[in-house]
Design brief:
Blueprint (H helix, E strand, L loop, with lengths): L5 E4 L3 H12 L2 E4 L8 E4 L6 E5 L19 E4 L3 H10 L3 E7 L5 E6 L5 E6 L8
Parallel strand pairs: 1-4, 5-8
Antiparallel strand pairs: 2-3, 3-4, 6-7, 7-8
Protein backbone atom coordinates (compact mmCIF):
# COMPACT_ATOMS: atom_id res chain seq x y z
CA UNK A 1 0.00 0.00 0.00
CA UNK A 2 1.02 3.59 -0.57
CA UNK A 3 -0.65 6.93 -0.01
CA UNK A 4 -2.95 8.19 -2.72
CA UNK A 5 -4.30 11.33 -1.06
CA UNK A 6 -5.54 12.92 2.16
CA UNK A 7 -8.85 14.80 2.02
CA UNK A 8 -10.54 17.55 4.00
CA UNK A 9 -14.04 18.96 3.73
CA UNK A 10 -13.62 22.75 3.91
CA UNK A 11 -16.13 25.61 3.58
CA UNK A 12 -14.56 27.16 0.42
CA UNK A 13 -12.43 24.60 -1.39
CA UNK A 14 -11.95 26.78 -4.47
CA UNK A 15 -10.43 29.74 -2.60
CA UNK A 16 -8.54 27.51 -0.17
CA UNK A 17 -6.99 25.46 -2.99
CA UNK A 18 -5.98 28.62 -4.88
CA UNK A 19 -4.29 30.02 -1.77
CA UNK A 20 -2.36 26.79 -1.13
CA UNK A 21 -1.32 26.55 -4.77
CA UNK A 22 -0.14 30.16 -4.85
CA UNK A 23 1.47 30.25 -1.40
CA UNK A 24 3.08 26.80 -1.39
CA UNK A 25 3.77 26.27 -5.07
CA UNK A 26 1.44 23.28 -5.28
CA UNK A 27 -0.22 22.47 -8.56
CA UNK A 28 -3.90 21.79 -8.90
CA UNK A 29 -3.59 18.34 -10.40
CA UNK A 30 -7.33 17.87 -10.82
CA UNK A 31 -10.37 20.04 -10.26
CA UNK A 32 -13.32 18.09 -11.59
CA UNK A 33 -16.50 20.01 -12.19
CA UNK A 34 -19.13 19.13 -9.63
CA UNK A 35 -21.15 20.38 -6.70
CA UNK A 36 -18.43 19.70 -4.11
CA UNK A 37 -15.72 21.63 -5.99
CA UNK A 38 -13.05 18.96 -5.42
CA UNK A 39 -9.48 20.17 -5.85
CA UNK A 40 -6.54 17.76 -5.81
CA UNK A 41 -3.29 19.58 -5.02
CA UNK A 42 0.10 17.98 -5.62
CA UNK A 43 3.56 18.95 -4.45
CA UNK A 44 6.39 19.29 -6.97
CA UNK A 45 7.11 15.56 -6.79
CA UNK A 46 3.50 14.51 -7.34
CA UNK A 47 4.13 12.02 -4.54
CA UNK A 48 1.70 13.56 -2.03
CA UNK A 49 -1.77 14.76 -2.97
CA UNK A 50 -4.14 16.82 -0.83
CA UNK A 51 -7.83 16.93 -1.70
CA UNK A 52 -10.01 19.81 -0.62
CA UNK A 53 -13.73 19.68 -1.27
CA UNK A 54 -16.84 21.48 -0.06
CA UNK A 55 -19.78 19.31 0.92
CA UNK A 56 -22.19 21.25 3.16
CA UNK A 57 -24.14 18.04 3.86
CA UNK A 58 -21.25 16.93 6.08
CA UNK A 59 -19.48 18.71 8.95
CA UNK A 60 -16.50 20.98 8.56
CA UNK A 61 -13.68 20.85 11.10
CA UNK A 62 -13.14 24.13 12.94
CA UNK A 63 -9.46 24.48 12.06
CA UNK A 64 -9.20 27.93 13.64
CA UNK A 65 -10.17 26.53 17.05
CA UNK A 66 -8.18 23.32 16.67
CA UNK A 67 -4.72 22.96 18.14
CA UNK A 68 -2.12 22.36 15.39
CA UNK A 69 -0.97 19.16 17.09
CA UNK A 70 -4.41 17.66 16.38
CA UNK A 71 -4.11 18.12 12.61
CA UNK A 72 -1.41 19.71 10.51
CA UNK A 73 0.17 19.29 7.11
CA UNK A 74 3.97 19.07 7.30
CA UNK A 75 6.11 20.54 4.54
CA UNK A 76 9.83 20.33 3.79
CA UNK A 77 11.52 23.73 4.11
CA UNK A 78 15.13 24.61 3.41
CA UNK A 79 14.67 28.02 5.09
CA UNK A 80 11.82 27.97 7.60
CA UNK A 81 12.33 31.63 8.54
CA UNK A 82 12.03 32.87 4.96
CA UNK A 83 9.08 30.58 4.28
CA UNK A 84 7.38 31.79 7.46
CA UNK A 85 7.79 35.43 6.40
CA UNK A 86 6.53 34.72 2.88
CA UNK A 87 3.46 32.87 4.18
CA UNK A 88 2.72 35.62 6.70
CA UNK A 89 2.71 38.13 3.82
CA UNK A 90 0.22 35.86 2.04
CA UNK A 91 -2.12 35.89 5.07
CA UNK A 92 -0.88 33.08 7.32
CA UNK A 93 -0.50 33.51 11.09
CA UNK A 94 2.45 32.10 13.02
CA UNK A 95 1.60 29.77 15.89
CA UNK A 96 5.08 28.59 16.93
CA UNK A 97 8.73 28.61 15.91
CA UNK A 98 10.83 25.97 17.65
CA UNK A 99 14.43 24.84 17.35
CA UNK A 100 15.22 21.30 18.46
CA UNK A 101 18.51 20.18 20.05
CA UNK A 102 19.57 18.40 16.84
CA UNK A 103 19.36 21.66 14.83
CA UNK A 104 15.92 21.00 13.36
CA UNK A 105 13.61 24.02 13.09
CA UNK A 106 9.86 23.51 13.13
CA UNK A 107 7.59 26.45 12.38
CA UNK A 108 3.82 26.19 12.51
CA UNK A 109 1.62 28.68 10.72
CA UNK A 110 -2.11 28.67 10.13
CA UNK A 111 -3.43 29.58 6.71
CA UNK A 112 -6.28 32.11 6.42
CA UNK A 113 -8.83 29.32 7.11
CA UNK A 114 -6.97 28.17 10.22
CA UNK A 115 -5.46 25.00 8.75
CA UNK A 116 -2.06 24.34 10.35
CA UNK A 117 1.02 24.01 8.17
CA UNK A 118 4.25 22.79 9.77
CA UNK A 119 7.42 23.99 8.05
CA UNK A 120 10.09 21.34 8.70
CA UNK A 121 13.68 22.43 8.28
CA UNK A 122 15.26 19.21 9.49
CA UNK A 123 18.91 18.87 10.47
CA UNK A 124 18.74 15.37 9.00
CA UNK A 125 16.08 15.28 6.25
CA UNK A 126 13.84 12.28 5.86
CA UNK A 127 14.99 10.12 2.98
CA UNK A 128 12.80 10.73 -0.05
CA UNK A 129 12.53 8.23 -2.89
Amino acid sequence: MKFEHVAFNVPDSRAHARWLADALGFTIARAPVGPTHMHFLADETGRIVLELYTNPDHPFLDFKAQHPMVTHFALVSTDAGADRARLEKAGATTVSDDSLPDGTRLVIVKDPWGFALQLCQRAVPFPMP
